[in-house]
Structures are given as structure tokens and as C-alpha cells.
Amino acid sequence: MILVFGGNGQLGQELSRAAAARATVLRALSHAEADIADASAVATALALWKPTLIVNAAAYTKVDLAETELEEARRGNEIGPGVLASACAGAGVPMVHISTDYVFDGSKQGAYLESDPVCPVSTYGRTKAVGENAVRRRLAHHVILRTAWVYSEFGHNFLKTVLRLAATRDELRIVADQHGSPTSAAELAEAVLNVAGAFVHDRTLAGTYHFTAAGVTTWHGFASRVVSIAAPMTGHNPRVIPIGAADYPTAAKRPANSHLDCRLFIKTFGFLPRHWTAGVDATTRALVGSTQQAGSHVA
Ligand SMILES: NC(=O)c1ccc[n+]([C@@H]2O[C@H](COP(=O)([O-])OP(=O)(O)OC[C@H]3O[C@@H](n4cnc5c(N)ncnc54)[C@H](OP(=O)(O)O)[C@@H]3O)[C@@H](O)[C@H]2O)c1
What we know:
The chain is 43% helix and 15% strand. The N and C termini lie far apart (46 Å). It is globular and about 55 Å long. The protein has 299 residues and is α/β, with parallel strands linked by helices. Strand 1, helix 1 and strand 2 (26-29) form a beta-alpha-beta unit. The chain has helices at 10-22, 39-49, 70-91, 123-138, 158-166, 185-199, 219-234, 263-269, 276-296, and strands at residues 2-5, 26-29, 53-56, 95-100, 142-147, 150-151, 171-175, 179-180, 183-184, 207-210, 217-218, 239-243. The longest helix is centred in the first third of the chain and has 22 residues, at 70-91. The chain binds NADP nicotinamide-adenine-dinucleotide phosphate. NADP nicotinamide-adenine-dinucleotide phosphate binds next to helix 1, helix 3 and strand 4.
């Protein structure tokens, strides 16, 4: 059985959904059920569930708040992964740990390889990079999967923010000079389950991999796609205006280039990601459809 930490997050919830569809035995623990930085809670969970593999989907993901909430960010992204890795090493259990494009500074021309040196430009990115190293140091049998620009029907994400703003505004001003691959948590969950299935039998697959949807766009391209899919269903069709990151100051700096090269993952695990538009279209339709269905019950 697969034991997931961070079970109430975007990826955690999609892992539960994807495992149920495949009849894979998986138990997802929420933050309230197990804090990954709490060694005794982690040990208790491992002893109780006796997993064959662990997925760490838990993380402190509030990128801007991390600049001021350093202790919380360290707990979720540095201490927690280290505690999990030590517990896995002690129990002889392999772990899939999720990381981020934000370990890079975004200055590279072209897609980032797994072997490129990390150089985070935010507290979130720095804590995630430290967490990666804690996993590498403490647990030989790890897969670190870096992904980017994750969205889903669950939780807070850019796609949902765009839908919310599009309902009330005539104009959305969206950053057009940061590049990345919007990745559906549903597809990421499928990728993680594929890794889990292979890694549990073949621990020589241990290492660091990149996985995102295929193709690259900007936040402006991402938002424009969401609006163009939603508009025929909602009637809300705001103009989407491109702006520079310099015109939208945020507490945390973000990489201008988040494009991750996923060829090693595809070659190793035989799982081909779909183009980013496929997941964005499906999630947009699902979210708008569920809102309209809920609305149709209101007298
Ligand atoms: N979201 C993105 O755009 C993105 C991009 C690249 C990589 N990633 C990585 O992908 C992974 C999954 O992200 P996601 O989008 O699913 O994140 P998410 O929706 O924010 O979920 C993270 C979950 O982890 C929980 N958590 C935080 N600290 C914890 C702790 N100390 N112990 C146990 N649980 C804790 C959170 O619970 P609370 O809400 O109760 O704190 C939340 O349920 C993370 O490793 C993230 O760094 C995400």
C-alpha cells in the first residue's frame, strides 16, 4: 500500500482519486493527521500502515508568505522531508518526494535538465532545495520529482483565481514574461502512481526527475486559455492584457523561465505528458460545469 502525506492538498486529493480509479491501495493522511516535521507522528503512521512506498505531497506552498513565515516554510519544506526520509530509511521503505521548478533562478536559455545546478531566488525555492538535499542525504531509495505551475479542481491555484476574477472584471492584467508549463495535479498524480508502480519493484530507478505537462506558455497564455474555454459557458469574456513581472510586484521573486526538460522521466517511466492545454481545458470545463450545476439548484 502507498502512504501519502499532505493528503488534503491539490496533489494529495488527486492521488486519492487516481488510486481509487486504478484500484491501487492508497491511504492519504492530512496535515491534521500527520505533520511531516513531527518524527513521532511519522513513525506512528509508518508502523500503523506498513506502506510499501511513501509519497510526500506535503509542502508549505505559499510562495509570497514564505518570505515572512520562514519557520513554517522550513517545517514543511526542509525539516519535514528530512524526517520522512530518515523514517523511510529506518523502515526500508522507498519514497517519492515532490519538488519544484522554483529551485532554479530561471536565467537559463532553454529547458532545465535535472543535472543543472539549483539557484533559488525565493525563500520557498531555497527551502525546497534544502528539502531535496535532506532527502538525498538520508534515503538512498528516493525519487525526487520536480514539477511546475500546478493547478486542480481542489485548493487554491492560478486557474481558479482567473475564473473568479473573470466573473467580475472587464480586464485582467497578467504577467507575460515568465514561462512555464501549467501542470494538472490529476496528470501529476497519474505520473506519481506510474513511478510508484515501477520504483517499488526496481529501486535502481532512484534519482531526480522532471515532470510537467508538455509545451510552454506564460501566465498570460495560461489565463487567456482559461478565459477562452470558460467564456462560451459563462458569458464572461474579459480582455486579458499582457504585463511585465516588473509591473506586478510580489513579495517573492519568481523565475522568468520555469521550463523543465522531462525527457529523462518519459524515457525512464514510459509516461508521456499531454500538452498543457488539454489539462487546462478539462479542469476549466469541470470547474465551470460544477459551479453552473450548483447554481441551477438555487431558486
Ligand atoms: N502548486 C504549485 O504550483 C507547485 C509547483 C511546483 C511544485 N509543487 C510541489 O508539488 C507538491 C504538491 O503541491 P500542491 O500544489 O498539492 O500543494 P498544496 O495544495 O498546498 O498542498 C500541500 C499540502 O501539504 C500540507 N502541509 C503543509 N505543511 C505540512 C506539514 N508540515 N505536514 C503535513 N502536511 C503539511 C498542507 O496542509 P495545510 O494546508 O493544512 O497546511 C496541504 O494540504 C509540493 O511539494 C509542492 O512544493 C507545487
